[in-house]
Amino acid sequence: MSSCNDEGLSYTCETKIRSNGIRKIYKTRYNCCYGTVREAGEFGCHAVELRSLQETVFALGGRSFLSLMAEAEVDPKFLNQNHTYFVDRSSPAPSDVANDVNTQNEGQTTDVKQDEPVRLRRQATNIMRMDVDPRDMTEVRTVVRGHMVRGIYLTSNFRDEQLLDTEDSEAKIRINMYNAPARIYTANYVRLVSTNNYAHQGVIHMLDGVMKPATKTIAQLLESEPHFSSFRKLLKDQDTAMFSQPGQLTVLAPTDDAFAKLNPELRERLMKGQGCVHSVVEHHVLPNVICSTVIQWRARSTSLLGSSLLLERDLEGKLVITRDVVASNGVLHVIDGVLIPENARIFNRLLSSHNLTELARLVEAAGMAPMLDSLTNATLFAPNNYAIRSIPDEIKQSWMTNPEKLKQVLMYYLVQPGIRQAGLANNQMVETGLKGQSVRMNFYQSMPFFNAAPIRASVQCGSVLRWEQDARNGNVHIIDRVMIPPENSITQWLANNRSFSIMTTLLKDTRLNEILNAEGTYTVLAPPDVAFYQMPEEV
């Protein structure tokens, strides 16, 4: 089986052969030779007109880079070696110039007017000869060399998270590739806007901004800035070796002002190393490099904690103050708010964030908020808003006017120590916070072809809608009905209800009431008296 892929400047074919149980894969890759390109669908490659490095950079709008090269007094012999140049487009090139050069972008080329090479050569030479103010020549040479990579690297040679060694021994250039949906390339998190531009002395990639060298690790960046003191305090007792080691992380670093905006109690807990500090730290770290230039609208990514983050101009409602601070092992974004994951929130805040506002209102009316927030390793069964609104108003009113009674009801929803779905079994009785009362867990096999969930779960016949919404001091299971603590057995309930007098008599006559009065797991389908009266008299 063979397949081929057109990659612009290259064409790759892969053949898979299986014979006598042995599988072999052959790959053949065709690349255009240096100084040649191919159009989409073109058979073979055709040559482009090559110019000097200075002429090509000038035509592409890299005038400031030419000035820096002049100031650095780079040895011409050094420049005559093959290099890949990453050039900041400091000023837009005039349209008549930009369209006249081989601004090679994955196989696209343009024609050159016959009189243009002369004009470009003259203008580029003037810039290279211009008088400049005296500067620190070492620093200027470092900047220029930090934009030069020895050898030829076309976009077809790039790999995601690739680190290119520059002529400045301390600086590296990190290449990232994104599909958004068209392919986007970045160098040190600055977008490449014109790629694969050939010159006599190498190839030039134009950047959409100023590319800063990556010389410090994320750990060094955090340590060097005084306004990260609170964030550093959080990291103090955590395993932060990853911030110093090679990698490709994205760190969302809140400032001291961001911590000052937190609830004082929560801030105090965090500063003392309490309140799920480890989760808070991991919620600010992404395992891959995300630079702002590739987020055109919004995107979702997953933090080291495993939680989802919505990335847009404002991050989860927090303003990004400084974007794309380049590090040798990733990128750092400075934000003005602290991102608190759900499993670092107390019960009361978790209820509000999941729109369980009716239950939160009952908890407040019963005066149970401080008690809930002080618990550890607890589980709360939480009826959704629809379930609570379905309760008759007179019952809710009786609860609201009698906080002690309401507290007894809510204790029925509390389990300690906490429980998780994986540790439960069918018909298991779970003891609640209401003395002498338990709730029954049931699991039912549903039809997989008609239901997305192969197993349905219930507690006291109320469906469990969502399991294990983690909080700092436990978890919440969301259910679809209000649970009322039972006061009677099945037979007692029937005997106390006049509508079931015949059913009660039949149970006594058959002595089935003795069975139902004992411990067990029964379901009774109880017809009321009116149903019996509809039967023929002789039956």
From TrEMBL:
One of its GO terms (cellular component) is extracellular space. SUPFAM superfamilies: FAS1 domain. Residues 50-211, 215-339, 343-483, 487-539 form the FAS1 domain. GO terms for molecular function: cell adhesion molecule binding. GO terms for biological process: cell adhesion; extracellular matrix organization. Signal peptide: none annotated. This is FAS1 domain-containing protein. It comes from Daphnia galeata. The lineage of its organism: Eukaryota, Metazoa, Ecdysozoa, Arthropoda, Crustacea.
